[in-house]
Amino acid sequence: MEVLVQWCGLPADDTSWEDWNALKDTYHLEDK
């Protein structure tokens, strides 16, 4: 599954589709 990520500190134009499994194992994610 892919999720659309808006990276903290970057403009909305830099959002990207990322693999959920890779992200959840690499980053501490917050539910917002």
Automatic annotation (TrEMBL):
<protein>
    <recommendedName>
        <fullName>Chromo domain-containing protein</fullName>
    </recommendedName>
</protein>
<dbReference type="InterPro" id="IPR016197">
    <property type="entry name" value="Chromo-like_dom_sf"/>
</dbReference>
